[in-house]
């Protein structure tokens, strides 16, 4: 198909669905501002990989082996099942990324391809619930690993304070030196994937290859149960964090080519790295020893290689890893207030836009102090909610980010459903226009739905709906007042 036909098809796609909206949509995805193109394809790849690959993967091998009763082949299958959402979700969102580079990333896709009321609710859920929740938790985890690495104790308040200090510093360098933030994202991603690759190589070269055939498994003793499939849902959270990468589209060089490429390639690279680590550590230590060591299995690898003094190295690795994840999420969140203000979807939108314009004119930076302040308020509110849940033990063995992640997975289904129209119009092939969105929907329902079915999480789901309802009522009141 020619480039002209592609353009015509994408316009037809927008017209077809926009007719159901109560408000007009722009005919193209575009941003009114022209921020400098400071980020490369490498940064987009590192942002997706850097957010997704947090500290959790280093401590998931034992959970997977417990669920599969020591079967490495079943563990590999579990990781593949868990990756369905990110791989096929990324392919589905790449269809939108090819059609524009508007400010806001996925919320811009929602505005241009979903009915206005639904798009607005989606934007609020992503910008005001999802990103602040995972950003706040990641900053707290930075505090956890900083305290472990530097011997500052394990007091929750200390961990939270260290996390908030990191949060403020991270906002500062993202606002003042956005290019430095991109470099940090690239460097931290390189550092965090190194142990995954190294452990994979160790397992292949020095490990026991028999584990790949299931040797050492106790699955026969447990019967032929398929209960292990349910355990794939928690593992899928190790793959979350890819959707915020679209927020840097206006600042990404050749974004209509590079962002779809990043959304397609990065999920596959993440799966390969996770499998390399899981198979490697299982082959090097043995499945039963990984289960026995639990979260200390990576420390055991370092002890075997370098002696007892190396036992704390995994804490430093995890610290760098989660710092990169937090930086990537905050990098995206800081751009959200401006993106919401462009459509009057946040209080004091005009004041925020004037602040952004003045800041851009005087400094050339795209993130204003006002936008950063709004992002910080949202992060602190999410941190307060996290403190309440942890100190009152309202979410045993969990935190508010898991609910927000599941909420976001289910919300993204709206864009996956809309992606079918690209296949129907012929602007996308059968695989990307039909198969990929269908698998992304199934993966999101399986992972997101299973997480939200736990009764202890229902009050927080109600809270999120109350927040969205309040914003909806505010918007309608503000619009009627202006009229």
UniProtKB/TrEMBL annotation:
Keyword Transferase assigned: no
MF-aspect GO terms: L-amino acid transmembrane transporter activity
Superkingdom field: Bacteria
Topology term for the membrane: Multi-pass membrane protein
Source organism: Candidatus Coprovicinus avistercoris
GO cellular component, one term: membrane
Biased composition (Polar residues): 19-32
Compositional bias ranges of the Basic and acidic residues kind: 1-16
Protein name: APC family permease
Subcellular location: Membrane
């Amino acid at each position: 198909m020619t480039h002209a036909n592609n353009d015509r098809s994408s316009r037809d796609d927008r017209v077809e669905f926009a007719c159901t909206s109560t408000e007009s949509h722009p005919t193209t995805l575009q941003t009114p501002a022209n921020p400098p193109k400071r980020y490369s394809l490498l940064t987009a790849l590192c942002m997706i990989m850097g957010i997704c690959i947090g500290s959790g993967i280093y401590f998931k091998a034992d959970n997977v082996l417990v669920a599969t009763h020591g079967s490495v082949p079943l563990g590999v299958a579990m990781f593949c099942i868990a990756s369905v959402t990110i791989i096929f979700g990324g392919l589905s969102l790449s269809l939108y990324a090819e059609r524009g580079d508007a400010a806001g990333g996925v919320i811009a896709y929602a505005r241009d391809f979903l009915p206005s009321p639904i798009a607005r609710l989606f934007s609020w859920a992503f910008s005001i619930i999802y990103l602040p929740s995972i950003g706040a938790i990641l900053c707290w985890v930075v505090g956890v690993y900083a305290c472990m690495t530097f011997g500052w104790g394990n007091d929750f308040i200390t961990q939270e304070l260290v996390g908030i200090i990191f949060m403020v510093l991270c906002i500062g360098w993202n606002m003042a030196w956005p290019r430095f933030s991109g470099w940090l994202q690239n460097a931290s991603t390189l550092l965090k994937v190194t142990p995954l690759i190294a452990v994979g190589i160790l397992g292949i070269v020095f490990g026991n290859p028999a584990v790949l055939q299931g040797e050492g498994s106790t699955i026969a003793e447990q019967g032929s149960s398929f209960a292990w499939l349910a355990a794939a849902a928690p593992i899928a959270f190790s793959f979350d964090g890819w959707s915020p990468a679209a927020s840097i589209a206006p600042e990404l060089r050749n974004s209509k080519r590079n962002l779809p490429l990043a959304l397609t390639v990065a999920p596959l690279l993440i799966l390969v790295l996770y499998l390399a680590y899981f198979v490697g550590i299982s082959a090097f230590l043995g499945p039963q020893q990984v289960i026995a060591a639990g979260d200390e299995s990576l420390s055991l690898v370092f002890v075997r290689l370098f002696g007892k003094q190396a036992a704390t190295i995994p804490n430093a690795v995890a610290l760098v890893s989660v710092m990169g994840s937090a930086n990537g999420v905050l990098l995206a969140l800081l751009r959200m207030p401006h993106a919401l203000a462009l459509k009057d979807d946040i209080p004091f939108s005009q004041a925020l836009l004037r602040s952004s314009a003045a800041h851009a004119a005087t400094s050339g930076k795209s993130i204003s102090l006002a936008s950063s302040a709004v992002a910080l308020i949202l992060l602190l509110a999410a941190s307060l909610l996290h403190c309440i849940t942890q100190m009152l033990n309202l979410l045993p063995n969990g935190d508010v980010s898991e609910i927000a992640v599941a909420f976001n997975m289910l919300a993204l289904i709206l864009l996956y459903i809309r992606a079918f129209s690209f296949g129907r119009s012929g602007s996308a092939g059968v695989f990307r226009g039909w198969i990929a969105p269908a698998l992304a929907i199934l993966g999101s329902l399986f992972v997101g739905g299973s997480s939200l079915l736990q009764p202890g999480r229902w009050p927080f789901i109600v809270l999120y709906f109350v927040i969205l309802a309040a914003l909806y009522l505010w918007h309608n009141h503000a619009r009627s007042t202006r009229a």
